Amino acid sequence: MEVGPPFPAGQPVPWRPAGPERPSPWAAVAAVAAGCWTVGFVVVSQLGGWLADQVLLASGLDRAVWLWPAAALATVLLVGGPALALALLPRSAAVRATGRAWLATVLVLGALGLLRAIPPVHHEAYLAALAATAALAALVLRALARRGAGATPRVPAPAVTLLGVAGGLALLLPWVWLGALGGLLETVLAGVAAAALGALAGALLDEAFWSRFTVGEPPRPARLVLVGGLVAGVALLLLAAGVGQSGAQLPLLLTLPPAGFALAALHAAARRPAALPAIPPGTSGAAGRAGASGVRPAARWLVGLGVLGPLAFTDPEEITLVLAGTRDVPFWVAAATGTGLAAATVLAVAYGALLTRGRRPSRRVAGVTAAVLLVTVGVVAVGVGQPGLHGERLFVVLREQADLGGVPAATGRAGRDARVGEVHRRLVATAERTQADLRRDLRRLRLEHTPYYLVNAVEVNGGPVVRAWLSRRPEVARVLVNQRVRPLPAPAGRSHGTAPAPAGPEWNIRMLGADRVWSQLGVDGSGIVVGSSDSGVDGGHPALAGGFRGGDDSWHDPWNGTRAPIDQGGHGTHTAGSAVGRGGIGVAPGARWVGCVNLDRNLGNPAYYLDCLQFMLAPFPPGGDPFTDGRPARAPEILTNSWGCPPIEGCDPGVLRPATAALDAAGILVVAAAGNTGPYCGSIDDPPAPYADVLTVGAVDRQRRVTLFSSRGPVPGAAKPDLVAPGDEVLSAMPGGGYAALSGTSMATPQVAGVVALMWSANPALVGDLPRTRQILRDTATPAGATYASRTQTCGGDRNITGAGLVDAYAAVREARG
């Protein structure tokens, strides 16, 4: 008898029911154990890696580039091993399919995890690499699937595809509502990466995968949804762990796995329109895949839109513990994640309940559902969302900086004013001359930009392409990414203090001897103006209202454009109170103050830090041009700066050095916080604290010991810190009229600024004489106790921990009087 194909070539082979598969119970137990191990290890490793990043950031240590590649390798070995065993050893086709799916996904995770070695500041480069890697992985998996199964006809399932689109839109909606887009290129690349990841999910959870869970006669859709959904959920968890920079993957660990159940229900529905029977285990080719091919487009849309939210509507650098103290980005990311998890759960339950009852899904109903959700997403984005693009900008530092050599070293009030005017004139002239060609080209290209003169630099609205063009220009020294926080759906809230007003001078005031300066020497800082650059100042606080200098050039807010002193965060009000506050909290209560907002939601960037330093050199009225409307004669004598600009905000070590050099040449004393990244040696590293022309201040406690959090030297080319002052549980003003005790070198810094105000108030001839002022502070300082991280970490000597010692206001003012 002739042996040949019983059916015409090219026609699908109908499946004849076979006996139900009887897998070994031990194989199922092994699969469950491997799944539990996979979920536990992945969640712990991803959360632990993010926390490690945050600890390094908070400690001021360098980013561990090797961290995420090492975590990816560990995941491949420790999760891939059990998955490989499941793929090879059990007799059960379903268990082997489980192992193959998990093995393929963990290998993809390993490749995607390597991409986190790209610094978060270069988010566009990461998104491009993510899109390319995901697309390549999808192509490889599709090629392997075709090689093993051959060409197959496709059964259209438009209703299932539309339901996949609807599900993806439901997962995207919370991010459109609570998040905000970045720049144009960043948004486009996020969309491309999301599409590639959707294609990758469709290739991972293809027809061959689902066919292994469609067994039994008659077919049992509930078994498919429960078992297949669980396996697909673990695979999607592995995929989610590799999507996004550190922090952005955490929401997906919760919102993406439930989509596995929705995809299982969609697969069950995709089989029904073609009226095909269940697909037996082991069947491949056209017969094995024809009935379920409609679920692949649904998977692409569902997973692609699901990952688009965290990729496009959040900045991974803002998912940080630095912002976790208020209702800022971490809070809203958590809210979007919770809402997305609820949406994913409802989606899985609804699809599972509706699509497994034997009813054919209606194309019209699916289309209407998808259309309604699409319109809802659009309305939310334009209405209650944060419409527009909010990407980073570029900070362009020019090669030529102003020559300030030969500026007369005149002292006293009149001499200092003359110095400020000469420095301002030279800075503006240099910037106007060297920026002319660049600014003309930027105007021609319609690129929004802001010029600066205190550092010869220009802030430009542009992305990587503009950055590459700028970097090649001969007049440009370097181009930095100028970080900008994305808008929130609601204000972060205002910080308030709950402590009562002090009954007399606080412990830190008494430790410095400032109260004796007031009572015995009759000096309170009158005649001196202190400039505060920080989160703002509550101008209505009882301890600060009377000290505001007033006029139209005493307040500047480059972040929000406010016209009167205000403070949302509280940090600036507290530091200003420690410098000039009345009622026993400020060192120099008779001095006046001017303010500038260089921090918004506890973050800054090079341009806005420079905005405030520039304003302090030559104040100008609201809306004025700093180049032409600046008033050097109105510059404050002393600047207190309780901030630092780390690399995550866009600064490099030398970006603000020309600014502090210019202020020093002008006779304006810059006092800066050492930082709170101790007790590590060499932790004074964020500008402007390491600069030699800045008076850098560490913190001590009530026992005159340097606090463990106080940053310390050594610093190349300078002895830092210069001095220490009380910085542990210091009581000062807070917005709304209250008080609070805070700790940090931020609290110590304004007290030293206040001591200098007392010195210059006592002897106006010292105004602008920065070398003599520094020498008096060092000579009159009292010993402070050094503290160490360990017996071996002495930081090269106590001088790099305590500086010259604890500032003594009483002795310094007496010495200043001569």
From TrEMBL:
<dbReference type="GO" id="GO:0006508">
    <property type="term" value="P:proteolysis"/>
</dbReference>
<keyword id="KW-0378">Hydrolase</keyword>
<feature type="transmembrane region" description="Helical">
    <location>
        <begin position="184"/>
        <end position="204"/>
    </location>
</feature>
<dbReference type="InterPro" id="IPR036852">
    <property type="entry name" value="Peptidase_S8/S53_dom_sf"/>
</dbReference>
<dbReference type="InterPro" id="IPR051048">
    <property type="entry name" value="Peptidase_S8/S53_subtilisin"/>
</dbReference>
<comment type="similarity">
    <text>Belongs to the peptidase S8 family.</text>
</comment>
<keyword id="KW-0812">Transmembrane</keyword>
<feature type="transmembrane region" description="Helical">
    <location>
        <begin position="125"/>
        <end position="145"/>
    </location>
</feature>
<feature type="active site" description="Charge relay system">
    <location>
        <position position="746"/>
    </location>
</feature>
<keyword id="KW-0645">Protease</keyword>
<feature type="active site" description="Charge relay system">
    <location>
        <position position="571"/>
    </location>
</feature>
<keyword id="KW-0720">Serine protease</keyword>
<dbReference type="Pfam" id="PF00082">
    <property type="entry name" value="Peptidase_S8"/>
</dbReference>
<feature type="domain" description="Peptidase S8/S53">
    <location>
        <begin position="525"/>
        <end position="793"/>
    </location>
</feature>
<dbReference type="InterPro" id="IPR015500">
    <property type="entry name" value="Peptidase_S8_subtilisin-rel"/>
</dbReference>
<dbReference type="GO" id="GO:0004252">
    <property type="term" value="F:serine-type endopeptidase activity"/>
</dbReference>
<feature type="transmembrane region" description="Helical">
    <location>
        <begin position="365"/>
        <end position="385"/>
    </location>
</feature>
<protein>
    <submittedName>
        <fullName>S8 family serine peptidase</fullName>
    </submittedName>
</protein>
<keyword id="KW-1133">Transmembrane helix</keyword>
<dbReference type="InterPro" id="IPR023828">
    <property type="entry name" value="Peptidase_S8_Ser-AS"/>
</dbReference>
<feature type="transmembrane region" description="Helical">
    <location>
        <begin position="331"/>
        <end position="353"/>
    </location>
</feature>
<feature type="transmembrane region" description="Helical">
    <location>
        <begin position="157"/>
        <end position="178"/>
    </location>
</feature>
<keyword id="KW-0472">Membrane</keyword>
<feature type="transmembrane region" description="Helical">
    <location>
        <begin position="26"/>
        <end position="45"/>
    </location>
</feature>
<feature type="transmembrane region" description="Helical">
    <location>
        <begin position="65"/>
        <end position="89"/>
    </location>
</feature>
<feature type="transmembrane region" description="Helical">
    <location>
        <begin position="224"/>
        <end position="244"/>
    </location>
</feature>
<feature type="transmembrane region" description="Helical">
    <location>
        <begin position="101"/>
        <end position="119"/>
    </location>
</feature>
<feature type="active site" description="Charge relay system">
    <location>
        <position position="534"/>
    </location>
</feature>
<dbReference type="InterPro" id="IPR000209">
    <property type="entry name" value="Peptidase_S8/S53_dom"/>
</dbReference>
